Amino acid sequence: MKIRVLKHELNESIQHVAKAISSRTTIPILTGIKLEVNFQGMTLTASDTDISIQAFIPAEDNEKKIVQVERPGSVVLPAKFFVEIIKKLPSQEVEMEVKEGFQTMIRSGSTDIQMVGMDPEEFPVLPNIEENQVISIPGDLLKNMVKQTVFSISSNETSPILTGVLWNLSDDQFKFVATDRHRLACRTAKLDDADGVRFSNIVISGKTLNELSKIIPEQNTRVDIVVADNQVLFKIDRVLFYTRILDGTYPDTSKIIPTNYKTELVLDTKKLSDSIDRAYLLSREEKTNIVRLQTLEDGTIEISSSSSELGKVTEQLEVSQFTGDALRISFNSKYMLDVLKVVESEQLRICFTGAMSPIIIKPMDDSQSLYLILPYRTTN
Amino acid sequence: MKIRVLKHELNESIQHVAKAISSRTTIPILTGIKLEVNFQGMTLTASDTDISIQAFIPAEDNEKKIVQVERPGSVVLPAKFFVEIIKKLPSQEVEMEVKEGFQTMIRSGSTDIQMVGMDPEEFPVLPNIEENQVISIPGDLLKNMVKQTVFSISSNETSPILTGVLWNLSDDQFKFVATDRHRLACRTAKLDDADGVRFSNIVISGKTLNELSKIIPEQNTRVDIVVADNQVLFKIDRVLFYTRILDGTYPDTSKIIPTNYKTELVLDTKKLSDSIDRAYLLSREEKTNIVRLQTLEDGTIEISSSSSELGKVTEQLEVSQFTGDALRISFNSKYMLDVLKVVESEQLRICFTGAMSPIIIKPMDDSQSLYLILPYRTTN
């Protein structure tokens, strides 16, 4: 392999695939990034067995020469050093040549690097995915759906299925659900291009979805999603992102969402968030995060928390709309803040079925999201 | 104590004094900030016994009412919670009232806080400092002198005196020295207002100087420095910053700086820094940070590092001026990068007295700084 490549484009692709490098891997070849060059361009691949990312740099783009290929070939280079050194090379052009024993020469300006390469034959082959079930979704919508659910996954590795986000697609309705048994987030979106594709019980690691989100550019990009037997492939521009589907059956969460409410409040999202944030500051010191919400006789509500050592915070809050019974309920304020952080609507509706029943939060201008928080059972 | 105070001004003063709060203190009263109110204004004090910071908020400034005092008094409030909650209060005005048993009520908008206060009588009294030895220095100069020396202090607590920066003042020459026995930084400045003040062997903790730097504003402020027996007091606008002088005698470093050189190089600071940074990336993986500098026959120099596992980086670098003998020397590239980061001059001079003798770095347009790095003794 012998090429000249533009540093900026090489660096961008390296940054993408590097997200699949795990610092904890025990398999030496997976500490590397695989480079494959043919006359069409250069392909970079990295994998931690759970996810694999592949980026393609075309030889030419819009009549701009990006990779000049003198001799095709391939090599695996140590990721950590490769990622950092390429970024810092002095010239806009980088020369690479693989010699005997995968010894790789990298030249840029007056910098000369000899890198110990590894045998590309040892690198795992990416799964061959049948493209039967393909949907297309705007990148920013996908990022949003991830952001609005992934915070509710479980961080407890003893129930691995709950560390993922559940995906269901039927009747063009694409639905994400995440829960850690104490709270739940659910977000649905209608797809234009689902073409009758349907699937259920597809569970994808929340950590993986966060990494995926980082790769999706801010601008208008479409992401193609290919769902196969035990793998999902995301196609984002010139990047392919493979992830395995988590094993197991996701619990049925439909029954825990109440359908009748005894108390409903409509509130300003920002004001509620600020109030709970102040109460949280105190409750955090008690390590419990418990905050109490109580309806008052004058139609307002009171948010409060207390700590025997530090004192008490009491917030009085106006309510835009109040229907139903008086109420006094305690909950984990951190969970509530996590929800309020991702609600984009100016107003929201909170629904209660009593002090021991789940709290439901719904953004006012968006019927596609629903959040649930279980209350604390307190005696006072 | 009963007052109304503007949130912005209160918050700013809290942020200043909070820098003296140590999260590791075992003395309960020192987890608090002391508030003292009289009709002139409000004084906030925090201390971790090593440093104490006091900030004054005047009742009125430029005809703007800042503190409205209804009843003078004082209290100590739990710092961590107080610092965070004040910042997040909903209204621009904050009402505070200390009740029986130092119970403190804080009101802002529709937020009500009850804080468990502590007895201000328990708070340590700040040292009474005689203002015999006072110098005045521009804030940005002081910040610069700290930045250009403090990185060379020792992080090893077994020789506490070396965790400080040595200050000497004589003939209006104010001199900072820091060393960890492997490297040394020295910075001198001529003071206009020293008024014949002189002192020597004043050693101030590097950590303290970093905290001090954060309090000095970017704009043109003068800092008054009062040097007393075992304390130094910095006066910055309305903030008083007390620190104790480290016990012990600072080692005499004058003899380790060579005065005759066998090889001298003049180099571009940025180019040298970039080259060493690339070589460092590799040497870091070997945990040694060893980089080699070698003069070449064509009058250039070569910077290189190698790792048995990863490979080799070789950099060739132009030299603006080269006098003396050929040379091959190894050093800790991290130490060199630390120096190059604080050198503001475009060009610098590096002086050598052989492969086993200290390396001296001097910025070209600044005779007031000198950096020293001991070389590695390597066999190759």
Automatic annotation (TrEMBL), chains A, B:
CDD domains, alphabetized: beta_clamp
Compartments where found: Cytoplasm
Keyword Nucleotidyltransferase among UniProt keywords: yes
Matches recorded under Pfam families: DNA_pol3_beta, DNA_pol3_beta_2, DNA_pol3_beta_3
Domain DNA polymerase III beta sliding clamp central: start-end pairs: 137-252
GO cellular component terms, A-Z: cytoplasm; DNA polymerase III complex
InterPro entries: DNA_clamp_sf, DNA_polIII_beta, DNA_polIII_beta_C, DNA_polIII_beta_cen, DNA_polIII_beta_N
UniProt entry keywords in alphabetical sequence: Cytoplasm, DNA replication, DNA-binding, DNA-directed DNA polymerase, Nucleotidyltransferase, Transferase
Domain DNA polymerase III beta sliding clamp C-terminal per the UniProt entry, residue ranges: 255-377
Matching SMART domains: POL3Bc
GO biological process: DNA strand elongation involved in DNA replication
Primary location recorded for the protein, binned into one broad class: cytoplasm
Sequence ranges assigned to domain DNA polymerase III beta sliding clamp N-terminal in this UniProt record: 1-127
GO molecular function ontology, one term from the record: DNA binding
Keyword field contains DNA-binding: yes
Superkingdom of the source species: Bacteria
Assembly and oligomerization: Forms a ring-shaped head-to-tail homodimer around DNA.
The family this protein is said to belong to: Belongs to the beta sliding clamp family.
PANTHER family in alphabetical order: BETA SLIDING CLAMP, DNA POLYMERASE III SUBUNIT BETA
Reported function: Confers DNA tethering and processivity to DNA polymerases and other proteins. Acts as a clamp, forming a ring around DNA (a reaction catalyzed by the clamp-loading complex) which diffuses in an ATP-independent manner freely and bidirectionally along dsDNA. Initially characterized for its ability to contact the catalytic subunit of DNA polymerase III (Pol III), a complex, multichain enzyme responsible for most of the replicative synthesis in bacteria; Pol III exhibits 3'-5' exonuclease proofreading activity.
Protein's name according to its UniProt entry: Beta sliding clamp
Lineage: Bacteria, Bacillati, Bacillota, Bacilli, Bacillales
